[in-house]
Write a structure and sequence with these properties.
The chain is α/β, with parallel strands linked by helices. It has helices spanning 26-37, 66-74, 89-99, 128-131, 141-167; strands spanning 12-19, 43-54, 57-63, 79-84, 106-108, 136-137. It has a six-stranded mixed beta sheet. The radius of gyration is 18 Å and the shape is globular. It starts with 11 loop residues before the first strand and ends with a helix.
Length: 171
């Protein structure tokens, strides 16, 4: 493990995702985890969504605008690593664009819904641009099943298209 004064000096960990005011999930939980692992490493938080969670009710979320997302990136220090969590559908493309020049490893921890219910993030199929950028992908089991179904549907569509092209001599 390196510290802020060793390899990667001055580089922060970008934590991109939802803000859960209870601290039980999202960027507040990610920040606590990062500090527990490497207390001297700087973190930079980028909020994608403000969530309302707790009391056993389904979670809800209010996404930030693409302009606000871009403004948060404009103020970010150089990343040593990037962790992407909750990303609403309307921010997948802007976020992928903002991350397209990143050279730091990107961990994508897709959030499709809250544990207590309530759809929060983009669907599995809509997350494609971010998933393709991931150095590491860390879905939970229900998310993995949804991501696998989306990938299987894409593979079936590609296979069908390839088969049809072969059958018609357009391969």
């Amino acid at each position: 493990m390196t510290t802020a004064t060793e390899g990667g000096a001055g580089q922060s960990v970008w934590l991109i995702g939802g803000l859960d005011p209870s601290g039980g999930a999202g960027v507040l939980r990610d920040s606590a985890a990062a500090r527990a692992v490497e207390p001297t490493r700087q973190t930079h938080t980028v909020i994608t969504t403000f969530t309302a969670q707790g009391d056993g009710e389904p979670a809800t979320g209010t996404p930030v605008s693409a302009a606000i997302l871009r403004e948060q990136f404009a103020r970010a220090p150089q990343p040593g690593a990037i962790k992407v969590g909750l990303t609403p559908a309307g921010l997948v493309e802007p976020l992928a664009e903002l991350l397209s020049t990143a050279t730091a490893p990107i961990v994508v921890d897709p959030v499709l819904s809250a544990t207590v219910g309530g759809a929060l993030g983009a669907t599995a199929s809509a997350l494609g641009p971010l998933l393709s950028m991931a150095t590491v992908l860390t879905p939970n089991l229900p998310e993995l099943c949804q991501l696998s179904d989306a990938a299987a549907a894409t593979l079936r569509a590609v296979s069908y298209t390839h088969l049809r092209a072969h059958e018609t001599g357009r391969n």
